[in-house]
């Protein structure tokens, strides 16, 4: 069997993942109290950090364990490894379908809430940090794979917009699980927003962000575990279905419009493949 | 456009990788939350079957949806109240803790960070890093606040 041989040839990679999984699960969930709530450290965060530490692209130590070919081969495994998790979420949504339907209006409305990045991050990027058109790629979405495809299609990834979306993508990949775990645990323990609303918001990003977020929420409010998982999963499914279109037809035109309002006079006719005709923005980048 | 192009799915390769991943998840489910091995094994087998069914739909359905969306849909449909065998399926998957299913995946993710991604992180600099934090926080808060408002309006 060709497929089995291919998987077996990566045995060192799988053994490392096995070791990290066991270590992470043995440590278990650690709760760190802070002023307004508590931050929860989850096994998935430890296994990610262990993976980074053993990555030959990041540490010299990693080169002792695996080669760069195995690192390349690990990338397509991530999306397959998250599939049982997605299946489990599905089996939690089915039995809770009544609750999902009664939360339907909120679930649909919060998909528009994805545009919250434009309200919070875009003005900070353009007005406070004085960024140029990188800000468009960086802030129009949560920068997961479908959003990269939108920017690649519209501006190419070599453009400033491309640099922006790739930068946020990489930071999200490196720190997204931590940021979601911290936000969810602090907001859940602070008790300002409805836990069901926090659960729905867990579904806005990647599978691992959702895992960190729901993990933190369910440990803060264990009595609502099934409902939290079901709502987050339903929201994530909606994001898969609508995210591409919200990004393409609403978010990207919105940031472009906002950019023209804020920068119009000094940045005329910018199209992403530009560069020569705008000394004002170029200076700010220096 | 590129996001709509349908990726090729190699069923036997997915089946083999999923087998390894399922074993890793079973180990995690046993050492972490301390769930019984046999119940966890059956639960993982059910999840495995759901994933393979979702992949088959993603590969052979006439219209395109991402495979994770199909997997989710299969999981939902077979556990809807009134579906044949629904109670049995739900009972089996309950022997698997949802959070442990992400632990092996994140280890692969840490090991998979490529050199050019490290380069991007270095050259983007602190401004992009700071903006990224606001992007993630803004998306989460935006969704949570709108959901909270709609839930309160509904009085639900």
From TrEMBL, chain A:
Q: Which keywords belong to this entry?
A: Membrane, Transmembrane, Transmembrane helix
InterPro entries in the cross-refs: DUF3100
Chain intervals for the UniProt region annotation (Disordered): 267-286
Q: Transmembrane residues, as ranges?
A: 33-54, 112-131, 166-190, 197-217, 237-259
Question: Is Flavoprotein among the key words of this record?
Answer: no
A Pfam match? DUF3100
Top-rank taxon: Bacteria
Keyword Protein transport listed? The answer is: no
Q: What is this protein called?
A: DUF3100 domain-containing protein
From TrEMBL, chain B:
Keyword check for Transmembrane, yes or no.
Answer: yes
Per the UniProt record, which residue ranges are transmembrane? 12-31, 37-56, 63-83, 95-114, 126-151
User: What keywords are annotated for this sequence in UniProt?
Assistant: Membrane, Transmembrane, Transmembrane helix
Classify the source by domain of life.
Bacteria
What's the name of the protein? DUF340 domain-containing protein
């Amino acid at each position: 069997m060709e497929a089995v041989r291919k998987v077996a040839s990566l045995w060192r990679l799988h053994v490392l993942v096995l070791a990290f999984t066991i270590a992470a699960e043995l440590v278990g969930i650690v709760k760190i109290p802070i002023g307004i709530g508590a931050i929860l450290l989850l096994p998935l965060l430890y296994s990610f950090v262990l993976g980074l530490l053993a990555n030959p692209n990041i540490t010299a130590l990693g080169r002792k364990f695996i080669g760069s070919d195995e690192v390349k081969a690990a990338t397509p495994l991530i999306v397959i490894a998250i599939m049982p998790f997605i299946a489990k979420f599905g089996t939690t949504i089915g039995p809770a379908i009544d609750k999902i339907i009664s939360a339907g209006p909120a679930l649909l409305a919060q998909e528009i809430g994805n545009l919250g990045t434009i309200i919070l991050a875009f003005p900070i990027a353009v007005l406070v940090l004085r960024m140029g058109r990188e800000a468009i790629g960086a802030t129009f979405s949560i920068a997961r794979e479908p959003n990269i495809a939108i920017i690649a299609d519209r501006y190419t990834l070599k453009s400033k917009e491309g640099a922006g979306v790739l930068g946020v993508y990489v930071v999200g990949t490196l720190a997204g699980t931590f940021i979601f775990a911290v936000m969810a645990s602090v907001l859940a323990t602070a008790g300002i927003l409805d836990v069901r609303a926090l659960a729905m918001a867990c579904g806005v990003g990647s599978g691992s962000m959702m895992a960190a977020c729901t993990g933190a929420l369910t440990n803060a409010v264990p009595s609502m575990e099934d409902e939290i998982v079901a709502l987050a999963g339903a929201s994530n499914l909606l994001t898969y279905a609508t995210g591409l279109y919200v990004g393409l037809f609403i978010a990207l035109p919105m940031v472009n419009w906002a950019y023209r309002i804020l920068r119009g006079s000094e940045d005329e006719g910018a199209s992403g493949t530009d560069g020569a005709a705008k000394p004002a923005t170029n200076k700010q980048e220096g | 456009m590129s996001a709509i192009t349908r990726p090729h799915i190699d069923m036997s390769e997915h089946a083999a990788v999923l087998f390894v991943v399922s074993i890793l998840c079973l180990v995690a489910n046993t050492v972490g939350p301390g769930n019984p091995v046999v119940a966890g094994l059956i639960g993982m087998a059910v999840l495995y079957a759901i994933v393979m069914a979702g992949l088959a739909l993603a590969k052979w359905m006439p219209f395109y949806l991402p495979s994770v969306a199909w997997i989710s849909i299969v999981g939902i449909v077979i556990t809807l109240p009134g579906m044949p065998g629904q109670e049995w399926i739900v009972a089996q998957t309950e022997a698997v803790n949802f959070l442990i299913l992400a632990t092996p995946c994140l280890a692969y993710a840490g090991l998979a960070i490529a050199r050019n991604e490290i380069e991007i992180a270095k050259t983007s600099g602190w401004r992009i890093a700071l903006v990224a934090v606001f992007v993630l926080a803004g998306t989460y808060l935006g969704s949570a606040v709108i959901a909270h408002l709609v839930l309160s309006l509904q009085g639900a």
